[in-house]
Amino acid sequence: MLIHQFEDKSLSHFSYAILDAGEMALVDPSRDPQPYVDFATSHRAKITAIIETHPHADFVSSHLELHQRTGAPIYVSKELHAQYPHHPLEEGDVIKLGKAWLQVLFTPGHSPDSISILAHDASNQPVAVFTGDTLFIGDCGRPDLREKAGGIHMDRVALARRMYHSLREKLLPLPDQVKVYPAHGAGSLCGRGLSEATHSTIGAEKISNWSLQPMSEETFVHRLLKDQPFIPAYFPFDVEINRRGAPPLQDSLACVPMFADQPAVQEGIPIVDARPEAAFKAGFLPNAINLMEDTRFETWLGTLIAPEQSFYLAAADTEQLHRLLYRIAKIGYEPRVLAAFVMKKGNQQLPKLDVHAFRLHPEQYTIVDVRDTSEVQQRRVFPQALHIPLQELRDRISEIPTHKPVVVHCAGGFRSAAAASLLYPYLKDRTQIYDLSTFIQTF
What number is the average pLDDT over the span 394-399? Predict the structure, then answer.
C-alpha cells in the first residue's frame, strides 16, 4: 500500500491518495482535480473511490468533478444527505482497494456526518487512519461550524459531546502504530492549536494530544468550546457547495470576464485589489480593499467579502489575475467576480504616516490594533490601542473615535493594509487614516 499526501499550504489542507494493486482511492480532494488525475496516471493506477470525510467548510472539493471525469464512485456518510450521486456509508462498511481494504468509522463531532477511514493492508493489518477534521495532530476539530449549515444542524455542545465519544470509542482504541493522517495542519481555522507536523501515530497522539487525555466529558466540552477562532463568512457557504457538488473548475473559471485594461466599474461594488501595499496606497479606486497575495488570501477574502456579495478583482498583471482567480475558486467565489482586471492607478491615496512624530507622541493618535485576541493577550504593542480584530472591523467602525488621526496596526502588515483600506471610505471625511504596517517592527 502506498499513501501520498497532497498539501495546499494556503488553506493548510491535506488530501490523500491511497494506492494498492493498481487501484487508487482519494480522500478529501481539493478543488483542482488535475493533480490527482496526473498522480494516478504517473503510477498507472485507476481511481476507483473518492471519499469525503465530511462536507468541508473551508474549501471546495472536486469530488463531483472527479466522479464525472473518472466514473469513480463517491463515498460519504449516509448522514450527509448529499445531493450528488454517491454511496452512503455507515459504521463498519468496507471499501475494497486492490488487495487492501478501507473500513468506515463513524466519528461525529466536528460535524454530525463526519467519518474516518481506517486503511488495512493486504495482510489485514490496520496501517493508517484518515481522520478528516475529527482528530488533528495536537488537537481535534472544532464543533461549532454546523449549527446553521449542512443537511443536519446541531448545537455546538451536542457536537462537542459527540467528539468526546468519537475520539475515545473509535480512534483511541486503535493500535499505537497506526498512522494518523488529518485533513488539516497548522494555520487551519477548523481547529485551534494544530501542530506543524503533517502526520503522526495513534501512540504519539495518545501522549501529546490534549483531546485524548483522561478527563471527564464535561471538562472536555468546556476545553473544546473555549477560545475557538472566528468563523469566516464563507464557511457555511462552502458546506452547502460541497453538499451539492461544485461545477468543473476550468469551466467555472472560463466564465469570469477578464480585462488587460481597467474597465468601468459599478459604484458601490467592492474591489479586491491584490497589488502590493505601496502600489495600492499610491492610487486606488473607491471601495477598494487592499487584500494582498498572501498565504491566507482565500481565508481573508471569504471573511471580508460575504458569499452573496459580488466584487471586482484587481491585480498588478495578468499573471497575478490568473493565480488569484484559481485561489478564489478554491473557496467557490469565482461566480461572484464581476470582472477581473489589471489595475493601473486610481485617483484615491492613503497618506504616509510620519513615523517620527508618531513615535514621539502616540497619544495624539487613535491606534487601532486589528490582531486577534490571542495575539493581543501575548503582546500588547500599544497599551492605549483600541482592539478590534480585522474580521470584526466593518461591523464596529462606529466604535472608532475620529477626533484624532487613526493609525492601524497588526503583526506583519497584511491585515493592517486591508483594515486601513476598509476604514478609508467610512472615515476619510472625518479624519486621516494611516497604516503603521511596515514600521511596526521598530516599536
Answer: 96
